[in-house]
Amino acid sequence: MDCPTEERLIRNRIEPMPGVVRLDFNLLSRELTVHHRLDDTEVLVVALKALDMAPRVLDDSAPAASSSEAPRLGVRQKLLLAASGVAAVLAEVLAWTTGQDAALPVLACAVVSLLCAGLPTLRKGWIALRNLTINIYFLMSLAVVGAVAIGKWPEVAMVVFLFALAEEIEALSLERARQAIRALTALAPDTAEVWQGDGARAAADAPRGAGQWLTRAVGEVTIGSRIRVRTGTRVPLDARVVAGRAALDQAPITGESLPVDKAAGDPLYAGSIAVDGVLEAVVTAAAGDSTLARIAAAVQEAQAQRAPTQRFVDQFARFYTPAVVVLAVLIAAGGPFVFGGGWSDWLYKALVLLVIACPCALVVATPVTVVSGLAAAARHGMLVKGGVWLERGRLLKVVAFDKTGTLTRGAPVLTDAIALNGLPVEEALNIAASLDEPSTHPVARAIVSGWRARQLGDALVRIDDFAVLDGRGVKARIDGPDRAGPFWHLGNHRLVEELGLCSVELETTLATLEGAGKTAVVLCSPQAPVAVFAVADAARPESGAAVRALKTLGVKTVMLTGDNPATARAIAGPLGIDDARGDLLPQDKQDAVAGLAAQRGMTGMVGDGVNDAPALARADIGFAMGAAGTATALETADVAIMDDDPRKIAAFIGLSRKVAGVLTQNIALALGIKVVFLVLALAGEATLWMAVFADMGASLLVVANGLRVRGHFAKAR
Question: In what order do the strands lie in the sheet with 639-641?
Fold first, then answer.
């Protein structure tokens, strides 16, 4: 079951059955989901066997995209196909040399070709007729019977051979599209190195005792088990590092181009590759619940959904095929009366029309292209939740970004260090870091991290009598021969005013920093302010490039944030975002997205998927950032960006435009070839075997063209 003809056949047979509620088809995975109220599903199996479908019930625990098996052309099939081809060619040669289409040698060759390759087609055509379904097998069977009736035996031989050959080639071509999805789950290894130690807690975070490393199937590894990942191997399961350091290539999961350093406490994703180093980790998710498995399952569900173009094509095909059959009957019956000529000539033209009329190329064009796009996006770290979003992306006119954690890192960093009253800035930063070291406040951690990042040689100085001044800062005594005595203070503008140490110069410096959207803190010695430090939530290095890429695509960018307007402008300005809106509550963001959609058209919203949920839900397309390992984001977002790279928004829009372009090409190819051969058929210039060749050739062309989407990002790089 991999063609809409089989889907229609199954629908006509099973949908009317009592107790059947709904049928969901996944043609590329050859899976049918029946929603029913039946006590026994054996009646479904019997019905499918009557359609020659040979169903196999799937296990619910089967991993996504792994159930369908690749088609294999067996030795017997190859021999029969080869024999049919030889017989068909001999029939054509004998008919051409003798000038007799119905001579006994020609008839014998045609019968051999028909028996070797045509019986499956005739059997399926009979099944379609019994179930009152018009599909390609019915049309081909009708053409073969009609050709036999008018004595076109060489045509019969060549038609059945070409159709059988084209069917095998098409099946193998479609398998390439399936492999794009199946390859996602194949990234994770089947086995893991598991620590088998003494005692119930030997595999947990505690230090290892006596024991050994054993190889186990990933399905047997439980949550909490301790695993080892060595250089050059893939991570078998989602886990958390407890020992060791290593660089991991996470490209299969997040799409990141560079390896990421991992140490104790860091998460590991199944399918990642250890570039160097050895890690020991504790398993945090079973094989079926890993991030990789959820990605594969989400892509599997997404590609099973009908994209808008596919729904249109499916509806078109439902009416198109019967209409062409009626036209063929009218041509066969009315041609001799209207235009003159023999009955056999007009019947032959009608048979050619029936063969070329099959909508397979038209119908298969959309799912292959969409699946290729979904797989390409997943490999690039973008999880698209359905073909509808993949097609809509090209229509985006505005993209609204949340600030914190989306365009910025989500944590403050030290941006400025200004020395006052002659104290060297390095020494001032050393003292400030010493005062802030005991504090857990984000601003304090930013100053300590800033001191460490500057790799200053001096160690932190010892402090005594440390105290937190609520809402203002900290104070402590600095230990040392020339610094003992009164308290040193580190805090905000209000603290400096309370100490009576403000000056016009200091006020100007603080106003400049705060006007730029930064948080300023002042280091005060017992006598005077000696330094000013500023921290801010810095923009990601990729954010500027992301905004520029969207502008290149003609997409307007907007920032929506709960921070004050000054901070919003300070971040948005350097990035090139002209419209920055601050002091917005979640409801305000939702209203802003609604307003943008009303004014400018289709609008996307990019956020973290939690506090931006109302705006993400209101947007035409919601993008969740940093979704790797986050089940909620994978389930709720229309598009989940697996790492925190905002540049992938533009990449998604580019992919959407590529998919739309290929879909247009495929539909034009499929319809164009049919129109050309329709004219040739009516003019008497097309033969039956030429019609088969054109029909299946069109199918192969659109499949091959759709598969090009898989390499979109490889070419972009």
Answer: 382-384, 639-641, 621-624, 603-607, 398-402, 556-560, 579-581
For residue 220, with 0-12 CB atoms within 10 Å meaning exposed, 13-18 middle and 19 or more buried, which class applies? exposed
Strands (E), 169-210: 191-197
Q: List the chain domain ranges.
A: 4-47, 191-289, 413-536
Give the three-class secondary structure for 68: coil
Q: Tokens 């009152």 appear where?
A: 132
**How would you classify the pairing of strands 239-249 and 260-262?**
antiparallel
Contacting residues for 659 by C-beta, under 8 A, at least 6 apart: 369, 370, 372, 373, 390, 391, 394, 709
Say yes or no: do domains 191-289 and 413-536 share a fold. no
The total of other beta-carbon atoms located within 10 Å of residue 73's CB is: 12
Rounded CA gap, 32 and 469, in Å?
Answer: 66
Tell me which of 233 and 159 has the higher pLDDT. Answer: 233
Q: Can you tell me which residue has the tokens 């996470």?
A: 250
Please identify every residue annotated as catalytic. Answer: 402
Q: Is the dihedral of CA 426, 430, 431, 432 positive or negative?
A: positive
Summarize pLDDT for 87-120 with one digit per residue, the tens: 988 998 998 888 887 888 989 999 999 999 888 8
Top-confidence residue, 204 or 550: 550
**Closest among 523, 524, 525, 522 to 514, alpha carbons compared:** 522
Backbone angles phi, psi at 603, to 5 degrees: -125, 135
Residue given tokens 């951690």 in the structure block: 445
Q: Which CATH class is domain 413-536?
A: alpha beta
- The model's pTM is 0.69
Q: How far apart are CA 482 and CA 527, in angstroms?
A: 14
Domain 191-289 has CATH 2.30.30.60: no
Closest CA to 95 of 106, 104, 85, 87: 106
Residues 6+ apart with CB under 8 A from 389: 621, 638, 639
Reference 414, options 398, 402, 430; nearest CA is 430
Q: How far is CA 513 from the centre of its chain?
A: 42
pLDDT in tens, 44-73: 999 998 888 878 887 655 544 444 444 555
